[in-house]
Design brief:
There is one protein chain. With 105 residues, the chain is an alpha/beta fold. The protein has one domain: Transcription Regulator spoIIAA. The protein has four helices and five strands. The longest helix is centred in the first third of the chain and has 17 residues, at 20-36. The relative contact order is 0.18. The model has no long low-confidence stretch (mean pLDDT 90).
């Protein structure tokens, strides 16, 4: 997972599939990153989750994405996903998650 701050946004690029065995690792890394950059992240408007290297997502992965979205919105920031495969994009649309956040190609 690559976590950076770019152009007034927190940019998170996932490098492992969003499946149950990986979720607790992802959660702790994101929490640590946000805590370490708390002062800087307060001024940022958006969180971008890049899924370009992800081939698989399971129900725990979807729950992770929804939980991240809820946390971001609670902080008054916008959330979007970019770079996901057509299959993952179709899954998000089937679950109507595209009604809550943008899913870019």
């Amino acid at each position: 997972m690559i976590k950076t701050i770019e152009n007034d946004a927190i940019y998170i690029k996932m490098q492992k599939d969003l499946v149950a065995p990986n979720i607790s690792e992802f959660k702790s890394k994101i929490v640590d990153f946000l805590e370490d950059n708390e002062d800087e992240s307060e001024d940022l408007d958006e969180v971008i989750l890049n899924l370009s290297e992800i081939d698989n997502i399971d129900s725990m992965g979807v729950t992770f994405v929804v939980g991240l979205y809820k946390s971001v919105v609670k902080e008054g920031k916008s959330f979007r996903i970019e770079g996901c495969s057509d299959d993952i994009k179709q899954l998000f649309k089937l679950m109507k998650l595209d009604e809550f956040f943008d899913i870019d190609e």
